[in-house]
Amino acid sequence: MTAYEPAPLAGGILRVLRPDGAVAGAAFLVTDRLAVTCAHVLDTGAGTGPGSRVMVDVGAAHGPGPFPATVRDWHPGTDVAVLEVAAPLPGTRPVPLVETGDRLWGHRARTLGFPRGHHQGVWHAAVLRQQQGNGWLQFEQAADGRYPVRRGFSGAPVWDDELAAVVGMVVAADLGNPVAFLIPTDRLVAAAPSLREVVGLPSPFPGLGAYQEHDSQAFFGRDRETERITRLVLGHPLVTVLGASGCGKSSVVRAGVVPRLRAEGLATCVVPRTRDLLGALAAGLSSLIRPGLHGHAQRTEIRSTRRELAEGRLPELIDQIRATRGVDGLVIVVDQLEELLTRQEATATLGLLFGPEPPEGLRILTTLRVDFLPQVEEQPLLRRAVQGATFVLPQMTGEQIREVVTGPVGRVPAVAYQDGLVDRIVADVGNAAGVLPLLAFTLDQLWREQRAGLLTQEAYARLGGVHGALAQRAEHTWRRYTATAGGGVPEDPGGDGEEDAARQLRRLLTRLIRLPPGTRTPIRRTVRRTELPDGEWEAARALADQRLLVIAPPATEEDVRYGESVELAHEALISVWPRLRHWAEEDRDFLAWYERLRQDRLRWETAGAPDDLLPGATALEAARPWLAGRREDIDTADADFLDRGRSRLRRQRRVRNGVVTGLTTALVIAIVAGALFAYQTRVSAVRQQESDSRALAAESAAVLDSDPPLAALYALAAHERAPTGEAQDALLQTYIAYGFTEVMMSGARGGVQRLATSDDGRVILVSGREGQVTLFVRDGNGQLYRERLPFGDDYAIYPFVSPDGGRVGWVTLSGALVWHELSRPGEPGSEADPRLGEGRTIAGQKFAMDESGLSRDQRSVAVSRDGDRVVVASAYDNELHWWDLDAGVARPPVTLPEPYWSEQVWFSRTPDRVLVETVDDLLNIDLRSGELLGVVAEDITSAAVSGDGETVAVCDPDNTLHVARSGVETQTVVPETCYGGAPALDPAGRYVSDGSVTPVVYALSGDGEATRLPQTPGNALTEDFGHLKHPGLLRDGDRYFFLVATDETVALLEQSVVNEPVHGAMRLLGDGEVMLSYSDRSTDEASGGEGGSALLLYDIGASGQEYEELARVERRGATHVPELFDVVAVDREDTLMADLMTEEGHIVIRDTATLQEVTELQVTAPPDDPHPNSLPGVDMFFQDDRLITCSGTVVERWDVATGERIDRVDLADLGVLSDDPLHAGQLRVASHPSEGHISVTNGGPEVRVVELAAGREVPGRRIDTGARINVAIFHNPHNERHLMVVRPGTAWEQWEVPAPGSDDPPRRLSGPTEVCPGCTHNPAISPSVRPDGRFQLAAADRVGIYEPDSAIPVEHWDVGRGGDFLATSTSGDTLLYGPWEATSSAWSARGTVTVVRLDDTDTWRAEACRVSGWLTRTDAEEIQRVTDTPVAELCDSPPAGEGDADGGDGENGENGENERSPGAPVTPATVPREFQRGESAGV
Q1: Three-state DSSP class for 807?
Q2: Spatial contact of 1064 and 1435, defined as CB atoms under 8 Å apart
Q3: Residue 1124, exposed/middle/buried by CB under 10 A (0-12, 13-18, 19+)?
Q4: Does 103 have pLDDT greater than 70?
Q5: 1130 burial class (0-12, 13-18, 19+ CB within 10 angstroms)?
Q6: What gap in Å lies between CA 1081 and CA 1092, rounded to an integer?
């Protein structure tokens, strides 16, 4: 017990005194004024009863008293009495009294009595047993107890040490035996019902479950929302409560709304979650029609009601309920409507409930997770459910959270929070979304940890707090179960069966989650007992005992045959328990595939089980690995669906074989080429092609991050098979993820252990994990060739490629060297395809080698410039092993002199000399003599040497990079650079990389200066910190590349050597062919960088072509540069733009065609002390040909032709600002369809309309949307009554605004729809109105086009990874997209922007072909086997000159390469890539 915990029963026991002052017995306080005792303790003769008076004092040594007490309740038959004192007694506190049921056997207990001779009290130590027939509970003297119960203990409280609460009152003893009896709490309450208000229930908090109707007295914090929902139900036949997961929808409906509806004279029927919706509805209605039935009579009544429902007689049943119950109507509650999305068997019942004409007197109240609203609206029957009134349940405020925490505890006077704990809990909850389940679970656990009625800080911390309690309990339960079920004990796990128990538990938990199509967030799934093996069922019961799972009995007769069901207690378990979250992520591909399989099966069943909807060849191929490895995780019905598909496929093949036998070969070719299945109907063929397309697209998504070339292949095949939406998305996702990648290579036998490359990166040799060797060659058109080379029994350890790519080879485990001549495509006299010469082997001496995995130590081998000599630096035996290829001999190894120890090696300018990096130095060694010629650099941490051997780069212990070139006196020094690894140089020594995870490259001037260049964009491969980066910067003509690899894939990433502008805010004009962009660096050398920023206009043309600078203007004197997410104000015709030059409000109006100034204006400067509601700075937008600005709270309208102000309004004078701290910075002003009007929101629920000329809010135009708003956007000009609302947490809705003068209320047309369910980022939203009046929303990873009354996109695109859409063209067809960072330090595509042209699948296909090397020509047969599609149909031949590199001799331009102008080719479909400030600062 900690020091601040009160002793059990301290201050809670009273002595009951006889008239003569002797002690008659004990009593105990349950509130500060009420005490309980035995009736026989008070029985002093006639006159004892309610209202009579007795004397009591405090049961402690020298305690105060006596005090008078009045008998409030007197129940001699049950021997219970309740006393009341006039005021709280000094030095006392109530004791916690709890009901426990008959589950106390073996609990240790104590009580304090006052027998004769011990009027100051004596303790009795006890062990509790069970109740007797008369309801008393037996307890016995503990083995270590010394004092038995005798007279004087009657009325004393019995304290349960395990529960830390009072469980009953001493009533009698078996004198002479160590046995006594107590009246348990439930009997005390039954005898004196007034005690019900003071008895602590086992816990007033529901844990992970929802509050139920019987919990209504303990339900706090939602009074306002409960009242509003109740009013909606009373006024509308259909009401839907929408909200995010974990916001308390079920609780507010069940514990808040339902009791109020009953009080309003309505009967309610809450439908339980079950697969038998009709049976559950019948059971609920039957209990209302004939409530007193049980057993057979009840089952008969339910069957009768079920038949009536099936016959469509719901109106008659409602009439019966109204007549028999005397109510005004019936409310049917369907909680968690999203559960019905996949319940095909519920179709008839849904039609009954949500038909076009609901029966009179019927109201239906549903709850729905907001992220499932689009899927619900796609279902014709369920759509009706959400077309009535809707209420969006907002996130709780801090005060509401405080009510949730304190309200239930405040109902139990004997229990309290320790000082400061409530504030700590409320602060921990903060503004986190979906936290209510975690809070309720934590409070429930905290309640169970109470000691002497106190909820303590120590217990809260021990539990892990709000955000850690659930994860901690889950992990503890996992460890305990796997240890005990496996034959061990929790304290010493590791029994023989522990691994089996762990597998069973993981399999169970994986079954209980699913990944709905189109979502990122796994949700819980209900599984029936019949679907679980016995071992998994036992695991489920163990987790249910810990309240992590819920096991529900069959809800209906129909459910009985399937047995009980089990599910996660709440979906919060998936997100907060790291183990389960990791499993869900690890199993994402399986879960996504399995959910698609379930959906396909349901589609097949709904259509009447036609053969043409069974899985086809592609779908079965996709299922094959899952059937092989996860068969036990696949339900019987789904496995049967796959079996039927295989049987059908076998029948088709038999038919096809019969056709082939009877026809000529020419006819067979015609049939196979003309149709996939010649005997099928056209409709069946189309269905099959679409099914195959979806399956291939799913496979593409599954391997997009791990094997990009295979993902591109699947995407191409999917689109070729059928241009489904899924195939379109697969191409787009490949385009987005790898559009900045030059080429990707996979399929290396044994994966990638080491790799070597030519200086231009067109010849790459990979050694695998078991010594296999794979060669990749890329020709001048970008066509990729792959050849897996024979290697025999001698493992390849060190691969090598000569600088010119003419020789490839490897050093084997035995010390031999194997090499080949390589004729490269495109070389004079070479064949069309690369040709590998015969292998030659030079025997050698075995030496110690590094056989480790994917190794960053890639400079253990070097090849001379002429390709004649190969050297290996062995760090294990401190020797240099080298071979002379032309002579065909292995030369004697060179041993380094002490104290040096070899690590890495490069050839110097001559083939006889090498530079060797040791632990601290860089040495110059003569290979022939073995002589140490000198120390090139001392006290270094890493080094690099250029391919020509002329330039050396080293890092020193101070993280300074030093670069020196032979014959050049001046060194280049770059401080604070070497943090990530060894530097890297290009072959000519003109560029150096710092070697960090995200490499930074500097251009070397030759005179000691270094200029930092834009960072190379990474991709999904490089976001993994396990990737390998080849330690050299490759040069192919005038282009430079990094070569990177993961365990299975190799990629080339281009490094820009042009110091392009750093871009800020951007805007697309017209159809997206032209882009406005700010740069925060001045490019006007003549101006001396005055102002430091520029505005540029680009023609970005069609994807994959050149972009051209159309205009440029230096923003002289500008002190404000719009940042990446700032909106550039442009008029409707895209002819004028507003350029905010200073934070003080100096604006220049420019012509967008030339960027020249039209006029300038000075708006009211933002105040130094702005109103908290206002946004900082100046906001502006065009309304027709006028500019509207908002500075602080001042709104002004301007004539952009003359620069004159037309109107000025201070919103502070109109009373539209909010002083609520939650609305700080939330003031928004947007254009209104009426000229000279604006719409204003302040973070609250209302949209107001202000007339600028009159300087007033327009009466009758205010709209209450019911919940907080971030920003409101009116659709204009196509539908002036159409309003889009964005909520905090980023959900959007569409509203219809009443016409001016109309009394009609505003009407929500769709939503709320979450922009990015499950996202950890707060996405930027890019809304727009297309020319045809439809609404377009781009955010996170999706673009959707919507009709004005629907949240279901009529067209949509999924880019596959989270990011921000930075701009949308006026047409809506072109967007600028920038990805989110994977982590702050990962090598990602951070800082890149991709031009996305919707439906430009030709470009997406071309990009997929390009980055995969136009498909490996040498793998044509394998590709056709995998995709059932010829290679020629997937990719055309690469265009002539694709990837061709000019200037390969290195002599072009001043520095040996072509200078790239802004109009030169760049990575296809990209705009200038960098947005980081100061990237090009000279060093």
Answers
A1: strand
A2: no
A3: middle
A4: no
A5: buried
A6: 5
Maximum Cα interatomic distance, the chain, rounded to a whole number of Å: 128
User: CB–CB of 1265/1283 below 8 Å?
Assistant: no
Is the CATH code 3.10.560.10 the one for domain 1126-1267? Answer: no
Rounded-to-integer distance, Cα 1374 and Cα 1073, Å: 8
Using CA atoms, how far apart are residues 345 and 970, in angstroms rounded to an integer?
81
CA distance 1134 to 263: 60
Contacts of 1338 (CB under 8 A, 6+ apart): 1325, 1326, 1327, 1328, 1344, 1365, 1368, 1375
Q: Are 446 and 459 in contact (CB under 8 A)?
A: yes
| pTM greater than the 0.85 cutoff | no
In a 3-state reduction of DSSP, which class is residue 454?
strand
Residue 254 is classified by DSSP as I
Q: What is the mean pLDDT of residues 779-793?
A: 82
Domain ranges of the chain: 13-197, 222-395, 404-587, 589-728, 1126-1267
Q: How crowded is the C-beta side of 318, counted as CA atoms within 13 Å?
A: 20
Residue 356: strand, helix, or coil: coil
Of 329, 348, 381, residue with least CA distance to 281:
348
pLDDT grade for 1452, boundaries at 50, 70 and 90: very low
Topology classification of domain 13-197? Thrombin, subunit H (2.40.10)
Cis ω on the peptide bond leading into residue 66 (within 30° of 0)?
A: yes
- For residues 1100 and 1107, the answer to whether their CB atoms sit within 8 Å is yes
Give CA–CA dist 695/683, Å, rounded.
18
Q: What is the CA radius of gyration of the chain?
A: 39
* Secondary structure in 3-state letters for 572-592: HHHHHCHHHHHHHHHCHHHHH
Considering only CA atoms, which of 1098, 1106, 1102 is closest in space to residue 1067? 1098
Q: pLDDT grade, residue 117 (50/70/90)? A: confident
pLDDT digits (tens, 9 = 90+) for 808-854: 999 998 889 999 999 887 654 455 678 888 989 998 888 877 655 43
Per-residue pLDDT of 889-945, as tens digits, reads: 999 999 998 888 888 899 998 999 999 999 899 999 999 999 999 999 999 999 999
Residue-level pLDDT at 653: 66
Superfamily of domain 222-395: P-loop containing nucleotide triphosphate hydrolases (3.40.50.300)
Is the distance from CB of 29 to CB of 37 less than 8 angstroms? no
CB 655, CB 611: distance < 8 Å: no
One-letter amino acid identity for 337?
L
Tokens of 1441: 């000159």
Q: What is each CA distance from 945 to 906, 916, 1066, in whole angstroms? A: 7, 10, 41
Given this model, what pLDDT does residue 1252 score? 94
Concatenating the DSSP letter of every residue in 194-214 gives: GGGGTSBPS-SS-TTS---GG
DSSP string of 1163-1196? PPPPPSS--TTSPSSEEEEEETTEEEEEETTEEE
pLDDT in tens, 492-507: 444 556 778 888 888 8
